[in-house]
Amino acid sequence: MxxxxxxxxxxxxxxxxxxxxxxxxxxxYQAHAKQCNSSSAIEHENQPxxxxxxxxxxxxxxxxxxxxxxxGENLExxxxxxxxxxxxxxxxKENTLAExxxxxxxxxxxxxxxxxxxxxxPYDISGEYAEVETELCIxxxxxxxxxxTLQR
Length: 152
Prior knowledge:
Blueprint: E1 4-8, E2 11-15, H1 22-71, H2 80-108
Antiparallel strand pairs: 1-2
Coiled coil: 73-107
Keywords: Coiled coil, Signal
Signal peptide: 1-22
């Protein structure tokens, strides 16, 4: 049976009606104390995980912001200085790639047979296109071609 509330001069008193012994009260206290200790231990163990999760969340937000800037989204929030810095980085990357292409061409040049050596034309970004005629032949090479007939 649960304690009965009795009010005397505004004070609330709990009166145990003889149903609970002192031993029962001590056991309930110990059970409650164990439960509190175990829950606080669990919280203490989870504390590093909570900090790690918060740290990872900030990193993810930063990476998402960087990705959006690279893709050209939400440029309103990007300052002119950041855009200039990005432009300089892209130009440096372009120069590095051009140097790598030159080195690769130089490495490839001695390996090409002299009869088959052709001048390697660098990629032209000016936007001009040259006309190229191509012919598609179906079948084994060197057998000739007859229109409309199958050669055996």
